[in-house]
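Hi R.,

Here's the input for the fe (ii) ion complex you asked about:
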Amino acid sequence: MMVNLSPTLSLVLACQLGVYTLVTAIACRGGEVRAPDPDDYIIAFSSCLQQFSDTSIWNRIAEQKPKLFLFMGDTIYADTHDMGVKRRAFARLNADPNYIAFKKSTRVLAMWDDHDYGLNDIGGNYAEKKQMQKIFLDAFDEPKDSLRRKQEGIYTAEEMTIGGKIIQIIVVDVRYFRTNWTYGPKIPPYTRTYVDDNRETSTVLGEAQWQWLSMLIARKADLRLFVTSTPVLSDDYKGERWGAFPRERARLFREMAAAQTGKWVIITGDRHFAQVSHRDDVLPYPLVELMASGMNTVWYDGSQEPDRYRDGETLPDYNFGVLRIHGRKGSLRYALHNGAGEEWKRGEIRF
Ligand SMILES: [Fe+2]
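And here is the predicted structure with fe (ii) ion in place:
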């Protein structure tokens, strides 16, 4: 979509041509100051925070003044079956002065990924998942009467009305029920690859979570944020991905298309770099996936791989995303920021 133009020229062309009607993705490197709009509802998001490394990115995220932070997995790194080690890792997170300060002004809604839930890339066969559900929800102060404590898995959803528009935030659990990966050949730089699993019995969400998702989709909404700790769109990445379960991903796309109201946007993490992707072949409008991952780690090799759906380059830097939702204008302005807090890429989705 955006060919190798200077950032300034890209900006001009994007504005003049509209690039695509519903979404404009504009490359901007630093130096941008965004005028605050008091009617914006601001949500920040990212994932993958190593608890023994520098956590000052919390202060950069706080500068954007988000009301809500979507913490999309790998909230700590503790690959183990030892629940004591898990508890201590979360205790370290909760004792971090940067995180404590951040939470004073921003609510955190957390989902796990593999390294906090269990072990690297593990799914529903993690033996300690029931214990981990309690440990995780305790770590993020989930209310005692929350449904997340009563059900299997920690999927959750919120609906809010912003400027007269209904915003649905759907946070799915892609760990608790997920079928084991089917291993493929080793292809550098990956330590392992996974091949497509088309068996009818294989699942990402599990049937109870699918039913819950259908129920949410039947509700009226103007904007639906689909938050998933592993990416949905890519057909080129060979690691953890929705696309490795083609039947499940096709079901997700069918569910999205079945929504009578509301525009979908995917928010994801996992990869330790940032990018914007979109597909034109799923919905009547471009389905955009925003990825923010690597709050204090970067996977440079991964960021260099090709991806047919990616818009422009990746950001191989610490990063986070920001959504500014203006209900009355029907506008979602998104931005991805680097580790210094500077805006790297932005766009707008009308809903
Ligand atoms: Fe991670």
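One thing worth noting: The chain has nine helices and 15 strands.

Cheers,
M.
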